[in-house]
Amino acid sequence: MQNHSGWQRIADDVLPVELGKESAVALPHFPQLKLPVNEQVGEDCPQRLPLEAIYVIEASDHAVDVGWHPLDNKTATLALLSHTVAARLFDANLLRRHLSFCVEVAACVPVRRLVYPHRLESLSAVQTLLEQWLQP
Asked: Are 49 and 25 in contact (CB under 8 A)?
């Protein structure tokens, strides 16, 4: 998708997030170890980008169409916790703080589950769905 007009890859599979004054923001300049140097985010990219939504992506052998549904705050918090890199290395205090962080992010950023048929040709429909959501 990053080769299509309007799309810019800013991360590999890890994107740090922090809570800003009014919402959560992404930190795209975090080193992306899986991307070649020439594919790292450029200097023209802001240091912080607002998170408009978070999608929990699920390929399904049973899905017929691409679709999404919002997650309630509890399910969204659990999804954020389960997608945290290296959380099992956190001590008890850091785990408590991280739980609070995930609760706050889930409360201020829409978290959605995006399900698509587990077929390569479904990816264009995923792109279309995301582009429709991003339209002002």
From this structure: yes
For the entire predicted model, the pTM comes to: 0.84
- Tokens 């739980």 map to which residue? 99
| Residue the block writes with tokens 């080193």 | 31
Tens digits of pLDDT across the chain (136 residues): 445 556 777 887 888 999 988 889 999 988 777 888 888 888 888 999 999 899 999 999 999 999 999 999 999 999 999 998 777 788 999 999 999 999 999 999 999 999 999 999 999 999 899 888 877 6
Torsion of CA 91, 97, 103, 104, to 10 degrees: -150
Alpha helices in 5-122 (DSSP H): 73-82, 92-108
Same domain flag for 80 and 45: no
Domain count, the chain: 2
Please indicate, yes or no, whether residues 18 and 59 belong to a single structural domain of this protein.
no
How many Å apart are CA 75 and CA 60, to the nearest integer? 19
Residue pair 6/132 in contact (Cβ under 8 Å)? The answer is no
